[in-house]
Amino acid sequence: MTEPAAAPPTAYPKPRTCPHSVDPEYARLRAERPITKVSMLGGNTAWLVTRHDLVRQVLGDTRLSSDRRHPGFPRFTVNQGNILQDLPPSMIGMDPPEHTEARRAVLGEFTVRRIEALRPRIQQIVDDRIDEVLAGPRPAELVAALSLPVPSLVICELLGVPYADHDFFQQRSSRLVHRSTPFDERLRAVRELRSYLDELVAAKERELPDDLLGRQARKQREAGEIDHPGLVSAAFLLLIAGHETTANMISLGVLALLENPEPRAEILADPAKTLPAVEELLRYFSIVEGATSRVATEDVEIGGVLVRAGEGVMALASAANRDPAAFERPDELDINRKARHHVAFGFGPHQCLGQNLARMELQIVFDTLFRRVPDLRLAVPAAEVPVKSEANVFGLYELPVTW
Ligand code: HEM
Fold it and tell me: In CATH, which superfamily holds the domain spanning 11-402?
C-alpha cells in the first residue's frame, strides 16, 4: 500500500461561503487523492475522505471508532479540548456493543410507523406558524418564524421538553455548533444544558409521563436498570440533533426552491415529487460536516492507503454527495434524480436515527408553505442572505421573505 504525497498544509473543513457550492478543492482532492492527510482547524491532522464509495466504507467499518474522547478523534474547532468531558457519551459517540444497546433503547420511537403517527400534529404546527407569518408584517424573517420553531416544537413535544424554554436551549446549541465559539463558552453551554436536562430527566423519573423521556425512564425502572446520566446524555443529543439540523435544512430548502421556480412548480403540481425533492435537497446541501468523523482503533486500509491505529478520519458527506461517480451532474439541483443513496444522514450503524422525522418535517413544510403562499419570494438579493460559513452544521442565519 502506498501513501500519496502529503497534501499542502491547509485547514479543514473549509468554510462554506455560498449555499450552492462546496469548496472546489474537494473535487480536486476527490479526483487526485480521495483519501489524504490534512491539517484541521483545531491544529491536529486527520485523513480527509472525499469519494462517495470510500465515505460509505469508512462509516460502515466498526474498526473506525466514534469515541470523541479518543485523543486521535478529529477536532473541528480552533479551541482544543473535549467539551463533552463531563457528559457521558451518548450513542453518537459510542461503539458496539454499547452503541447497539443505546440505539436499540430508543429505536422504537423513530420507526416509520411511529413517525407517520405524528404527521397530523406536525401539519398543525406548520400551519400555525404560517398563519402567524401571514398575519405579521412584511418582510418576514423565516428562520425565526418557521425554520427553527417547527423542528423545535416537534422535538420538544416528542421528548417532553417544555417549548417555553426554547430560547435557552437554542442559544446554547447554536454556540456549540459554531467552530469559532471560544472553548470556555462552549464548555459553559454544555454544562448549562446538562444541568437543565439533569433536572428535567429527574422529574421524568419521578412522574413517568407518556413522552419519550418518560417512557425511557419507565422502561429503565421496570428493567431495574436506572441510568440517569445515560438518559441525560440521550436527551442532550436528541434535543440538539432534533432541531438544529432540520432547521437549517428548512431554511436552505426554502431558499433553493425560491431561487428555482421550476422545481417549485413541479412540487406544487404533483406533491408526490416532494419526497424525492427532499432527498435531493439533503444531498445538494449536505449540511452536517462534523459528525461523520472517526478514529482508527487498528490499522485499516482505505482506498489503498494505510490508516494507522489512533489516526483520525473525516468522512466528508458534502464532498461525497458531489461525487460524479455516484451522482450525474452533481453540482446541479435536480429534484427528478434518484438521490436516495446520498450520505447526508451518514451511513452504517450510526446512520441518522431521526431521518424519518426530518424527512417528514421537510416534506410538510415545503408542501404547505408554497401551496399556502404561492407568491412567496426573497426580500433581499440571494447573495445577501447570511450563511453560517463556520458552523459544523451549515445553514442560514436569516431568510428575509415577502409575498
Ligand atoms: C446521527 C444528519 C435530523 C437524531 C446523524 C448523522 C448524520 C445526521 C450525518 C450521523 C453521525 C455519524 O455518522 O456519526 C442529520 C440531518 C438531519 C438530522 C442532515 C436533518 C435534516 C435529526 C433529527 C434527529 C436526529 C430530527 C432526532 C430526532 C440523530 C441521532 C443520531 C444522528 C440520535 C445518532 C445516531 C447513532 O449514533 O446511532 N444525523 N440528522 N437527527 N441523528 Fe441526525
Answer: Cytochrome P450 (1.10.630.10)
Confirm or reject: Cβ of 391 under 6 Å from ligand 1. no
Q: Is the ipTM of this complex over 0.90?
A: yes
The per-residue pLDDT for range 342-353, each reduced to its tens digit, is 999 999 999 999
- Asked if residue 66 has its Cβ within 6 Å of ligand 1, the reply is yes
Q: pTM value? A: 0.95
Ligand 1, from 90, 239, 245: best to mutate by most atoms within 8 Å of Cβ? 245
Cell numbers linked to 295: 478514529
Give the burial class of 188: count Cβ atoms within 10 A of its Cβ; 0-12 exposed, 13-18 middle, 19 or more buried. Answer: middle
The alpha carbon of 355 and the centre of ligand 1 are apart by a number of angstroms equal to 7
Q: Is 344 in the pocket of ligand 1 (CB under 6 A)?
A: yes
| Domain layout of the chain by residue ranges | 11-402
Q: What number of other Cβ atoms are within 10 A of residue 306's Cβ?
A: 13
